[in-house]
Design brief:
The termini are close together. About 25% of the residues are buried. The protein is mostly beta strands and about 110 residues long. The chain contains no helices and nine strands. It has one domain: Nucleoplasmin core domain (Jelly Rolls). Strands 1, 3, 6, 7 and 9 form a five-stranded antiparallel beta sheet that branches. It has a four-stranded antiparallel beta sheet with strand order 2-8-4-5, with no helix packed on it. The mean pLDDT is about 95.
C-alpha cells in the first residue's frame, strides 16, 4: 500500500469549490486543516465533504459559517480539528467557501492511500 503525503494550499472563493479530491481508486486521509484570514475585517468560512457528482449543502457540512477574526488578531488563524482524521473515498472532495473571495487561505495536509 503506497502512501504519498500532500500539502494543498488555496484561497477560498464565495462559492463552494473543491480543495482536495480523492483520485480514482484512492482514499485520502486528511491529517490537518488550517485556515487563515488575510483581510483587515472578520470573515466566515464553510467546509463540506462532498461525494462524486454531488454538491455542497447543509447535509454535507463539516463547518458552517465559522467566523475568523481580522488579520493580525488572535482569532485570524484556526486549526480546524473537526476535519482532522476525515477519510475521503474515491471521487469524494473536501470543498470550501468564504464570505468574501480571496480573503481566507486554507492549508490541507493529507495522505493519499492507494
Amino acid at each position: 500500500m503506497a502512501q504519498t503525503p500532500t500539502l494543498t494550499q488555496a484561497q477560498l472563493g464565495t462559492s463552494a469549490a473543491a480543495i482536495v479530491t480523492a483520485a480514482s481508486g484512492e482514499r485520502l486521509y486528511i491529517s490537518k486543516v488550517v485556515v487563515c484570514n488575510t483581510a483587515a475585517g472578520a470573515r466566515t468560512y464553510s467546509l463540506w465533504a462532498v461525494p462524486p457528482s454531488q454538491t455542497a449543502g447543509n447535509a454535507r457540512a463539516l463547518v458552517l459559517n465559522r467566523q475568523l477574526g481580522a488579520s493580525g488578531s488572535v482569532t485570524a488563524t484556526e486549526d480546524v480539528r473537526e476535519v482532522a482524521g476525515l477519510v475521503l473515498d474515491s471521487g469524494w472532495s473536501l470543498q470550501g467557501a468564504a464570505s468574501v473571495a480571496s480573503s481566507v487561505t486554507i492549508h490541507v495536509q493529507a495522505v493519499m492511500i492507494t
